[in-house]
Amino acid sequence: MAILIENATVIDGVADTARENCSILIEGERIVQVGDVDCEKLPAGLERIDARGRFIIPGLMNANVHLFMAVNLESLSRYWDRYEDIILEASQVALKHGLTTVFDTWGPRRFLIAARDRIASGETVGARFFCAGNIVGLDGLFSPDFFSRAQEVASAVMTRRINAIWAEDMGRHLMWKTPGQVSAAIDAYLGRGIDFIKYASNEHYPGAFLAFSPDQQRAIVDAAHARGKTAQAHSMSVEGLRIAVEAGCDLIQHCNKTGPVPIPGDTLDLMARRNTGAVVFPQTDAGLAWLLENLPEEQQESWRVSHRNACNLVSAGVKLLLANDGAIMPPEWPTDPQWGKSWVTAPEAFNLAKLTTGHFVWFEAMAEKGCPPMAMLHAATRNIAEAYGMADDLGTIAAGKYADLLILEKNPLLDAKNYRTILSVMKSGKIIDREALPEHRLMSRDIEAPCEEEGRHIPFLGSGGRFPFSCC
């Protein structure tokens, strides 16, 4: 099947400016020609799309998502046999909202690989995705690294199984190993089908402690590169960030999150010189104001510093990558007392963490921080493809690359909010029926209506320890 898109303004991610009255010829999954197309040499059976007055950009990419975030005990139990379906649902939601390629940086490896391969084979529709499995050096889902409170109510059988599904043999015990032993473990893990390595330079929370020594980190990166795979680090402090850059990481996740200490100038310079991919989690001014008003005081300085870091990364000319920990949370999630008010439960207008709209918030936040419009587009397309070693196939609109395109109603270079004006999504040369996605709603469903018995139920104690039935 051949498609000719005509009369468009194309922002291809290659040229420094948009190309007006431009055509794109697509055959099968890939782009054949961009620019002036010889109409006398067009293939038979061609489908023409008139994109006059429209703007075409490469399909958006996200450098850090979590396609399985049904990590509350309720969902893990309720959907025990549907983990793969949840991942497919999230990939379809991502595609619906303009993300044609995403990178899952933490999740249940076996189920992610199965869903990834179903999409890659064409068996089902979804955003193209690549996965890392566990964050090397962190333990399982029900461990102190993540949600240890679940151990208080889950059986020992379930706790052991869930932790094993997430961490396998890539947990905290590796911190005790020699660099050579860590390297061997990484090589074995890559042999299980993951696409790249993500390891912990810092612990997860509060994040100041180093997880692996500099020598261990270099061994991890070298082992990944020896297999032709990229390596990235989870960093949470200025020292964790610096050591990961010096270890040779291809990209660093949420590198603007460095606790109460801003990134030193020499580390910014080092990242720029080495062309290290800087994954940034920015907040809009409105989002930052909400966080400072609603979060505990000990978290507020961290968010102020993350805002300052994002601005400094822009000014230093570091290679920026769009990401947001994008996920679909279970609909019951906001009512879980463990979460309350946090950056992942913020109002949707400036909630960075949503898989549906968080990438649009990212553009708006970075525009406020002075990031040039074309640099923002590159951060969401070309830079991600380069950092993950996939620039031959993805990231720009050019001959030979996958035909991953968005048709927008308005010019995104004029206003970051125009990224929201998606008219059509094309992935691998096929127009996506966005209205049909997701095909099955599990995490994206509405919360169930109250059951019959809830209308008659009288709790013994209400909020605040009061008797709800008391007339006094």
Automatic annotation (TrEMBL):
It holds the Pfam family Amidohydro_1. InterPro entries: Amidohydro-rel (IPR006680), Metal-dep_hydrolase_composite (IPR011059), Metal_Hydrolase (IPR032466), Metallo-dep_Hydrolase (IPR051781). GO terms for molecular function: hydrolase activity, acting on carbon-nitrogen (but not peptide) bonds. Coiled coil: none annotated. It comes from the Bacteria. Residues 55-432 form the Amidohydrolase-related domain. This is Amidohydrolase-related domain-containing protein. It comes from Rhizorhabdus dicambivorans.
